[in-house]
Amino acid sequence: MNWHHAGIEVEDLERSAAFYEQIFGFKARSCLKLGEEKIVFLACGSIVIELIGNSEQITASSNLHLAWEVEDLSYWMDHIEECGLKPLEGPYSLDSGLTVIFYKGPDGEVIELVSQRTGVY
């Protein structure tokens, strides 16, 4: 079994796609329509996100988050701050040697960046 993608329902498909493209470097891979829903698949390396357009108010699940491993956490923190996004939590250095930081996406989804490099913060 292999991981295929994560799906996120979003209020504004264009806004959410721009968020992931501009901040994290995702590129649109395909667009489709399923009934009344517009769907965009975005990819960055092996990570694929499905954005599902939904004009209704979205309530993000508090038990769901996306976690991406990055080599240079300091670079990503600076880049994300330059894009106007502040951390939701962290950064935290864990006993396991990982450093993590959390951000909030445009529809309330939580995005966690993980670095295995010790001594980052």
From TrEMBL:
Superkingdom assignment:
Bacteria
Q: Does the keyword Metal-binding apply?
A: yes
List residues of the VOC domain.
Answer: 2-116
Classification via SUPFAM superfamilies? Glyoxalase/Bleomycin resistance protein/Dihydroxybiphenyl dioxygenase (SSF54593)
Question: Which InterPro entries does the record associate with it?
Answer: Glyas_Bleomycin-R_OHBP_Dase, Glyas_Fos-R_dOase_dom, MMCE/EMCE_epimerase, VOC_core
Q: Which is one GO molecular function term here?
A: methylmalonyl-CoA epimerase activity
UniProt keywords, alphabetically:
Metal-binding
According to its UniProt entry, the protein's GO biological process terms are: L-methylmalonyl-CoA metabolic process
Signal peptide positions on this chain: none
Protein name as annotated: VOC family protein
